[in-house]
Amino acid sequence: MAEKNKKGLNLKLYGVFAIIVVAVILGALTVFTFTARYTAFDPEKTAVAYVDTIVQTGDGYNACKNTLLSKDMKFGDFIRQNYINPVIYENYKPGAGTKGLKGLNDESLKGEKNLNDNGELEGKVIDTMYPFFVNLIESNGGFDAYDAIFTQYISELQKVRKDVFGDTYFDDSAFFTAFEANLATYGESLTGTQDEYDKNTGVQTKVASVGAYQEKFGEDYKIEVVSAGKTENGENKCTVSVTVNVNGEAEVENLPVTLVKIGRSWYVDNTACDTSELYSFYK
Amino acid sequence: MSEEKKKYMKKSEIFTFGIGLFGVALLTGWMPDYTQTFFADFAFKGKGFDSSVISSQISAVFLAAGIIGAVIELVTGFLIDNTRTKLGKVKPWIGFGAVPMAIIAMLVFVAPNTKNQTLAIVWMYVIYSLYTAVGCAVERPAECFGALCSPDPSERSSAISIASFMKSVGQSGGMVVVLAVGIVMKAVMGQQQFKNAEAQGLDLVISTAVCALGFIIFVMIFFMNNKERVPYTREKVSLKDAVKVVFTNKNLLMVSLTKLTGFGRGVYGTVSLYIAIYLLGSKDLKLALLLPMGIGTAVGTLLVNFVLKKFSTKQTYILFCVYGATSLAILYFVATGIGFRSALIIPFLILNFFCGLQHGNTNVTPNIMIADCVDEIEWKTGKRQEGLAYAGFGLFAKVASAFTKALGPWLLYTWSGYLVSTDANVAYAAQSDSTLNKFLMIYTIIPAAFVILQGVPILFYDMVGDKKERIVKELMIRRAAAADRDFDEPANDAD
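ok -> structure tokens follow
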């Protein structure tokens, strides 16, 4: 297979050398990029990512993905196991499987309105739930009280869906569709929106609005979250002080975020954090 | 045994030629789509850049890279034809170009940590243009190696067929890589941490590294094992003469024109999502829709090899065009006959496989025809110009691709009367029967018309039969004479 070129270039040697050199460079670039972008290897980056997710769009829900709640499973699965499945299946115990169980997600429970919905009634449910969602966030001072939020939201959602669809059908996508749509609308109420048009047809799909952040800090406000330092609290535990700057001025100063290291990854200890200030600094 | 029946290539060379093209396709098939995704969604996530500006700039980046690619295509072709080394004329480009190509491909996914939007945009232009330029300088030589792997047209055709099959498989290899990388990352990191890493585009970064590593390994296997077996001619080719070749050799022009006359056969890709949603009932069926067609294409690539043993390249090309148009027409009539309901799914997917068979022809036969055209040009002019011949074809393919990208959206969003949803809670608005029928036409009848049109230039192609045999024989004699003359000063290591 190998041949020595007449000028002396050993093709086999060159080929092996090229593969090794490229493999080393690819490996180095991958490790560099991974450590630079992946937040969980660094407590300060994890704390900043956690706070940044909350302050940019009021999204304490996705911020939970940096916390101990997501240590063993996807955050979505955590919600399924602890809040949705117990509602769908009678006598369901968190952590147990759902195979073979019959519950409210049985297709036969879907009524005519549900079966024929092209999204309009689903939209009605989402719109009806929005004031309830906002009230939950404001009365609980954010998402720290996630247990109360998910429990109450799901309970109300079941009632609203029954009113709109006229059946008792309920599944996980009913929750995620409504909750995440409400969360997105809540975020837009803070950041404001711009006119949006379908790029292919030119049809307007969103109308411009002014958000609460824009009213307080100006149309082109800029929120930046930075770490103000880290304090070790014993082995595999630390507290990072996080500051939220808006247009270069500190609006939230030295918010303590407690983190725990498990394996190589750092997680926010959500039970030891008070993030309520992050939901009110613009008021 | 006659001179033509002599085997020039080792069996392993046919396989490693395929391996080489598989490696090249693994990386070049991965890069464009996932680069676009990476630039749009991950490269500058959380930097506070204006997403509408970034989006419009990404389109401009790809447009600029396309123009650069077209220029580099011709320049590379010209340079290949003026390359004379002991290794041959295309092998050095592949073997020595592969190293920078793999590294630059990886660097596309290593975005600078900057909060300066202008700098970020400049970086996107520079890095992707650089990748396109280096990519052209490796991909094109790899493709035109087929014309140099053997002086025997039938042996060459078999090698090109098998390599084209491997290439078509390699083009989808990235999809498997990203899937496997995801599974491994989930197992190592846990579900949520994988999700967090995925949200930073890190699965794409690792997948790029895997594709680039696969690329260098496979290309080096090819580089170490394969030899150019057609000697290059010694005459220097001027740029003017080189460009002239592309447009004045009738047969080469006809093969290249098939790309232009058939440019609309690819519009089905634009509408496939809407076919899945509106005609089959779920957008999840888009993959199911494309999979049988992809398998059909791979099978078709092998099938062409068998057909070519019985028929000439011209007959094979026309046969597959007629077959392709017929299969698409049958799909149209079956779909309208059954109606747009769930009962349509199975017959639609089965017929999709049969429609995919025709793509094997467009993957293989033109490459064999170009190799034959290179022989004809050498016979006429005494100059062997694989580089320019394949580059010219590639240039026509790029222009045709731009036309396809313009026609597809126009047909879908304007001609069909498509209604976009203005309700935030309704993803896809209901469409009229006329619009749904036009969707089906964009998927079937319109591509069928272009499949017929792409066969028209081949009616004027005549590098077949006695003419081809005569040219090949005369070239053999000339090369043998040249080899005798050059005994003391061999042109390359071709044997």
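DSSP finds 18 helices and no strands in chain B.
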